[in-house]
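Write out this protein's structure.
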Amino acid sequence: MTRARMPRPHEVAIARRDPRLLEALGERRSDEAWRTRGACRTVDPETFFPAPNEPTEGAVALCGSCEVRGACLAWALQVGDCHGVWGGTTPRERRAMLIAWRERVQPNGDPVDDGTDEADRKLLTLEPTAR
């Protein structure tokens, strides 16, 4: 069994701006029956849980066409699942996203009140501009 490493600061910075994470944040309170509509329901579950060092591209590609990708990723981040492919992300990507998720979402699913208003929050998620 391999031991997962902690994400590096630059990986967390990238995860904070990842559109998949932003989609998951928006869908964290969506329909609880999202599992019944997942594209993965027609595929062998082993596809989404490859052995270490096996490719994940097939599972990630299938997730790319799924209508409940955001809710799926939100669920995985909320419960802290770092195994398999969820919401089109690999375990390594989710470890970095999990840090960004916990900065914005409380354990009960409510947003973190960090003192910034919505306009400031939008500015924080934008790419830095060149000067």
